[in-house]
Design goal:
mainly alpha, two-stranded antiparallel sheet
Length: 355
């Protein structure tokens, strides 16, 4: 009599899998014959740690819609002569703003849900804070300071095209705040000792901060004679510092993923959105210069172009690590278990030494 219900139960069991969610909780999810709820696809950048194909497609589409709405509603760059391209440039700018800005949240939310930052490089986070602090000052002053803009016109034959838009300013300041929060999470969840940088990274950070402060003092001391350049040169220096940091900051995370043979704890959505933002940022800069017939916006804003280009290269490396090299290590198992194993091995080694 009950053979049919048993067969149906067996069929359901074959179609279900117990899938870990963020934080290690579990639920039964039907993987055959049932589509994933649309709200989960829409929220993929915040709740999906695997970077599934459908989640990536819908997530990026939603961000494109948000960017389009912002680009059409918010003020446009009046320095661009063509009305239709002015709107298009603004839309592209807020596409990249949406991607790059949202890219910081998946890692923050993942750390909160797991109550740990294991798998995330503290060296990467510390360099990120310094880099975006430099980038924020660079963008804010180029966009708002009339004195800096006058120096730019004198340097570039009267050109008004600094290459910095309002969305650049919003992104830079927002990125600095979220990067700082991520760094503080490391100390909060895993202890102050987890913030200690590797020796070489610590020396690099000290060197960067010393060079910035020294250059600022020299410009103030010899501002009238301009023996060491102007404040515009100081901003360019900050831009070069940001490019340098962008070039080296990803290396500790690449090495950490390689040593662990896993990308667990390192949000793939951080990378997918960073890649999209970098490509769109470079696209906007190139198209702006082409439309205005003024390529000083590119040569005079190497920080923006270099930032996007370097991000693209390293993002490709991270995507290869996640999807190709260590796909089995990128599921949603908690990273804490890996560290528990390491701690157990170390304890065993210490006990052997004692005996």
């Amino acid at each position: 009599m009950d053979s049919a219900p048993r067969r149906r139960d067996a069929a359901v069991e074959e179609d279900t899998v117990e899938t870990p969610l963020l934080g290690g909780e579990h639920q039964e999810q039907v993987i055959e014959g049932r589509r994933q709820p649309i709200w989960k696809l829409v929220l993929s950048p915040f709740i999906d740690e695997t970077g599934s194909g459908s989640g990536v497609l819908v997530g990026l589409l939603m961000l494109a819609l948000v960017g389009t709405a912002l680009g059409l509603i918010l003020p446009q760059d009046q320095k661009i002569p063509s009305a239709w391209y002015r709107a298009l440039s603004n839309v592209i700018g807020y596409w990249y703003f949406s991607c790059w800005s949202v890219s910081f949240y998946p890692q923050v939310l993942s750390n909160m849900s797991r109550k740990t930052t294991k798998g995330l490089s503290a060296d990467f986070c510390a360099l990120n804070v310094i880099g975006f602090a430099c980038y924020s000052v660079y963008n804010v002053l180029l966009f708002y300071s009339s004195e800096i803009q006058q120096l730019y016109r004198e340097r570039h034959s009267g050109s008004e095209n600094t290459g910095v838009e309002g969305n650049d300013v919003a992104f830079a300041v927002h990125a600095f705040v979220l990067s700082l929060i991520t760094l503080l999470q490391i100390g909060y969840y895993d202890g102050i000792s987890a913030l200690q940088p590797k020796r070489i990274i610590g020396l690099i950070m000290i060197g960067i901060l010393f060079s910035i402060s020294t250059y600022a003092v020299l410009i103030m001391a010899f501002e009238k004679k301009k023996r060491f350049g102007s404040w515009l040169d100081f901003l360019y220096f900050l831009g070069y510092i940001k490019i340098f940091i962008s070039f080296i900051k990803y290396i500790p995370q690449v090495v950490l993923n390689y040593s662990r043979k896993s990308t667990k704890g390192w949000s793939i959505w951080n990378i997918l959105l960073d890649f999209s933002g970098g490509a769109l940022s470079d696209l906007q800069l190139i198209l702006d210069c082409a439309n205005m017939g003024d390529w000083t916006g590119l040569t005079g804003n190497l920080a923006k172009f270099g930032l996007g280009s370097i991000s693209i290269v390293f993002d490709i490396i991270f995507m290869l690590q996640h999807y190709v090299l260590y796909p089995g290590g990128s599921n949603s198992e908690t990273v804490a278990s890996d560290n528990d194993i390491c701690d157990t091995i170390e304890d065993n080694e210490e006990s052997k030494d004692d005996t």
